[in-house]
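Backbone-to-sequence.
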């Protein structure tokens, strides 16, 4: 353990700037009696809110506030914690913070996520729960917040721990059998139906993977880019989806020159929508840069919504331009990837006939927008699962997929006539290890550093 994990730390634990109330939080291994006496002028009853003057070094009053002492180990971090709840002005909170740093020997400013990192290191939260704390704070929709709260309660961890126990059970069995003489072990493994157990495990992992992917979608959202020729109604569609006049709309082709992005939500799934400059051989420098940016956005999008203008479908030059864009899209992407993310949508259904089977809408009247929303959710792989939802990260999906691959590897090994049990054991060990990365049982220090450094300060 690095020495820095032993230091007392302090930080402003509320959003910076002006708030009605702000909190300065201190966490330390050593007793906080000296600090409490210095700032509060009296001893504090554990886990009890005291209203009192909070004092500077010269005895002057910084603020009338609330002080709370959580003696170790019954605190957020598992260490001694002192909370000073003051009025929320930035100057007051800075003064209180400076006072704590100066009155508690060895105390330094907390790094981002360091309180939660200590909660993790002291076993108060596992890694998936600690990540849920950050996801709860950063949640951009109610559904994301609610499922982050469920992950914080341990919904994902519980699933992962259930899998872990089943894996440990199998590992112990297979490893014990390894010590048997060769003829007996095979028979033993067959009797215990290791193959059946592995098959069961694999379908359990698959079910959890499906839910974890949903949880990751709630967290990451979906990147949708509106692309197409000038004047087809991309900006109108952005405005219609967002319900606000965000992008300029005019009948002049080439109106949008720079990207305009907005986050909306559909059934709680965050959608990041980007309106782009119409794709054409631009006449001037500004538009040329705009079109280059359109292509950058297209490259990064999960869904490329290729918008067409129904009123111009029959025009030869219009068709030629659409073909050119299609070819350019194909040149930027491999066919399968393009197929999976390209969505053709036909606009101005209020002003023209709609061809059979086309996904048509009118950005002007709003007709067809609901069907588009549902199509976007379907593209994202969203399945409404009201109960049992928990927030998750791409990292969790990856770890579960690797666990699944190793369980599959073990299954392959036991399915041959004379299974090599040492290979089965090795696959199971790797599966266990991959699974353990989710809750932080087997996590490298650099992964932990990476995760906690993305928290806000004071968390
Ligand atoms: N004022 C304040 N509000 C806050 C926090 C905080 O640190 N301070 N939290 C910060 O994120 C969240 C609450 N999280 C907390 C988690 C555990 C404990 C705690 O004292 N745990 C003890 C006792 C548990 C019990 O009494 O049942 C323990 O785990 O032993 C406190 C806050 C949200 N609201
Ligand atoms: N009739 C009809 N006109 C529409 C519809 N959507 C957009 N328009 C009109 O089409 C013209 C172009 O709309 P924009 O939204 O600016 O088109 P754009 O694709 O963003 O164009 P650029 O920014 O130039 O690439 C405007 O005159 C809109 O009023 C629609 O659903 N029906
Ligand atoms: Mg536009």
């Amino acid at each position: 353990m690095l020495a820095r994990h032993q230091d007392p730390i302090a930080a402003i634990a509320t959003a910076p700037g002006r708030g009605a109330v702000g909190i300065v939080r201190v966490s330390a291994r050593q007793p906080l009696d000296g600090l409490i006496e210095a700032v509060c002028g009296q001893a504090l009853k554990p886990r009890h809110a005291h209203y009192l003057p909070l004092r500077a070094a010269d005895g002057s009053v910084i603020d009338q506030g609330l002080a709370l002492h959580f003696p170790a180990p019954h605190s957020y971090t598992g260490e001694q914690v002192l909370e000073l709840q003051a009025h929320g002005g930035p100057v007051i909170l800075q003064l209180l913070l400076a006072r704590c740093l100066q009155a508690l020997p060895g105390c330094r400013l907390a790094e981002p996520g360091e309180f939660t990192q200590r909660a993790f290191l002291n076993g108060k939260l596992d890694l998936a729960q600690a990540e849920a704390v950050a996801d709860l704070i950063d949640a951009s929709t109610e559904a994301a917040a609610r499922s982050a709260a469920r992950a914080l309660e341990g919904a994902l961890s519980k699933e992962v721990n259930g899998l872990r126990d089943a894996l440990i059970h199998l590992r112990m069995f297979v490893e014990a059998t390894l010590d048997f003489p060769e003829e007996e072990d095979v028979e033993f493994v067959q009797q215990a139906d290791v193959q059946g157990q592995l098959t069961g495990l694999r379908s359990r992992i698959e079910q959890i993977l499906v839910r974890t992917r949903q949880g990751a979608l709630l967290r990451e959202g979906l990147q949708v880019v509106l692309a197409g020729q000038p004047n087809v109604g991309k900006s109108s569609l952005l405005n219609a989806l967002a319900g606000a006049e965000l992008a300029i709309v005019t009948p002049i082709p080439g109106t949008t020159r720079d990207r305009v992005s907005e986050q909306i939500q559909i059934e709680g799934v965050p959608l990041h929508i980007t309106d782009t400059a119409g794709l054409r051989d631009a006449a001037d420098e500004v538009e040329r840069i705009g079109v280059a940016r359109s292509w950058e956005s297209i490259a990064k999008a999960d869904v490329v919504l290729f918008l067409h203008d129904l009123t111009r479908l029959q025009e030869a030059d219009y068709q030629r331009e659409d073909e050119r864009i299609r070819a350019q899209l194909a040149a930027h992407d491999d066919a399968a990837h393009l197929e999976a993310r390209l969505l053709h949508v036909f606009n101005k259904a209020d002003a023209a006939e709609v061809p059979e089977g086309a996904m048509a809408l009118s950005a002007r009247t709003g007709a067809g927008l609901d069907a588009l929303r549902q199509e976007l959710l379907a593209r994202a792989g969203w399945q409404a699962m009201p109960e049992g939802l928990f927030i998750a990260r791409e990292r969790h999906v990856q770890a579960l997929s690797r666990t699944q691959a190793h369980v599959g590897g073990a299954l392959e090994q036991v399915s041959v006539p004379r299974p090599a049990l040492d290979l089965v054991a090795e696959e199971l060990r790797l599966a266990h290890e991959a699974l353990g990365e989710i809750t932080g049982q087997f996590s490298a220090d650099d992964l932990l550093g990476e995760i906690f450094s993305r928290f806000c300060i004071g968390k």
